[in-house]
Specification:
The chain is 78% helix and 1% strand. It has a two-stranded antiparallel sheet. Strand 1 and strand 2 form a beta hairpin. The protein is mainly α.
C-alpha cells in the first residue's frame, strides 16, 4: 500500500484494504509483462515509483463498502491504475516535466518517444483487461472516461498561456482531466458490487468531487508546497503558462500591478517571477480561496456517501476526503 495513503489514513485503510492492495499489485506486475524489454523497463520504472494509488483504492473501498466479496475489483483497480499511469507518461511529455514522485520522469530518462509509446501500451493493455471481464457496462464507463480525459488534455493545451481563462472554464478542465478517472473508479466499485443505479451515481459524485478537491490542492501546492515533499518542482504550472485557480483569482482580485505581472507570466511561461507571483497570490488570499473551494468539493464528496451503511470502508472513504485537503504532498 502506498506510503501517502498510509500516512493519511493509517489506522483504517491499512486494516481494511491492505490485502486487497497487495492483490492489485500482483495483478499489475503480471499484466505489465511484455516480450519487448523496453516496455517492461519503462512500465516498471513508473509503476515502482509508487504514488498515492488513490484511484485503485477507490475501486476497492467503494466495492467493499457495498459488501462485495469477489475478486474482479482487483482487476478493475489495476485497469484504473494503468490508465492513470498512461496519462502520466503522456502528460510529462506534453508538459516537458523532468521530475515526478521525487524521481526523474520517464521522458527525461528514456526519451519522449519511448514514453509516449509505452503509455500507449498501458492504455491498450488496460482495454485487453476490460474485455476479459466481459462486462459491457465496465467498458462503457472506462471508454467514456478515457475519451473525456483526452478531451481534458486538449482543453488544457488550448488554455495554455491564456490569462483570460475563467474560473468555470478551468473547473471544466479539472472535471475532464482529473476528476473523471476518480469518478469512473468509484462507479466501477459500486457497479461490480451490484449496487443500484442510484448508488452508482452517488459513488460517481463522490469520486468526481474528491478528484476536484485533489486537483485544487495540487494547484495550491504548486505554489506553497515543498519540492522534496510533493515530489516535483514547484512553479511548474507557471513555467508551463497554466492559469490555475490561484492565478485566476489573483487576476480578478489583485492590484493593477499584480494583474499585469501575472498576465505577463502566463503569456510568456515566465517562472523567473515565481517569488513575486507567490507573494501576490499569498497576500491576495488566492491560496486560501482555492483551499476553500477544495473544502467545498471534499464536503460534497462526503455528503454523496452519507447513505452508505457504517463500516470501516466508509470511514476510510471519509478520511480520504480529509486527506485530499489537508495533505502536504
Amino acid at each position: 500500500m502506498s506510503a501517502a495513503i498510509k500516512n493519511a489514513t493509517q489506522n483504517t485503510i491499512t486494516a481494511t484494504i491492505g490485502a486487497d492492495m497487495t492483490a492489485v499489485d500482483t495483478v499489475i506486475r503480471r499484466k505489465l509483462h511484455s516480450e519487448v524489454s523496453l516496455v517492461n523497463q519503462i512500465a516498471e520504472y513508473i509503476i515502482s515509483a509508487g504514488g498515492k494509488r488513490i484511484r485503485p483504492a477507490l475501486v476497492l473501498l467503494i466495492a467493499k463498502a457495498h459488501a462485495y466479496d469477489g475478486t474482479a475489483h482487483h482487476e478493475l483497480a489495476a485497469v484504473v491504475e494503468f490508465i492513470h499511469t498512461a496519462t502520466l507518461l503522456h502528460d510529462d511529455v506534453v508538459d516537458e516535466s523532468s521530475m515526478r514522485r521525487g524521481r526523474q520522469t520517464a521522458n527525461a530518462l528514456f526519451g519522449n518517444a519511448a514514453s509516449v509509446l509505452v503509455g500507449d501500451f498501458l492504455h491498450s493493455r488496460s482495454f485487453q483487461m476490460m474485455v476479459a471481464l466481459d462486462n459491457m457496462r465496465v467498458m462503457q464507463i472506462l471508454s467514456d472516461a478515457t475519451n473525456v480525459i483526452a478531451e481534458g488534455e486538449v482543453l488544457q493545451l488550448l488554455n495554455m498561456h491564456d490569462p483570460d481563462l475563467s474560473e468555470d472554464s478551468y473547473l471544466e478542465v479539472i472535471r475532464c482531466k482529473t476528476a473523471k478517472l476518480f469518478e469512473a473508479a468509484a462507479e466501477l466499485g459500486a457497479l461490480i458490487a451490484g449496487a443500484s443505479e442510484h448508488d452508482i451515481a452517488a459513488a460517481g459524485e463522490y469520486g468526481r468531487s474528491l478528484g476536484t478537491a485533489f486537483q485544487l490542492i495540487d494547484d495550491v501546492l504548486d505554489y506553497a508546497g515543498d519540492a522534496a515533499e510533493i515530489g516535483k518542482n514547484v512553479g511548474d504550472d507557471l513555467r508551463e503558462g497554466k492559469a490555475t485557480l490561484p492565478l485566476i483569482y489573483l487576476l480578478e482580485n489583485g492590484t493593477e500591478q499584480e494583474r499585469a505581472l501575472v498576465r505577463a507570466c502566463i503569456e510568456q511561461g515566465d517562472e523567473q517571477q515565481f517569488d513575486a507571483v507567490l507573494a501576490a497570490i499569498t497576500s491576495s488570499g488566492a491560496l486560501a480561496y482555492t483551499r476553500d473551494k477544495a473544502n467545498v468539493a471534499a464536503k460534497r464528496a462526503a455528503d454523496a456517501i452519507e447513505d452508505l451503511p457504517d463500516s470501516a470502508y466508509k470511514q476510510s472513504l471519509l478520511q480520504l476526503c480529509a486527506f485530499a485537503v489537508d495533505r502536504k504532498h
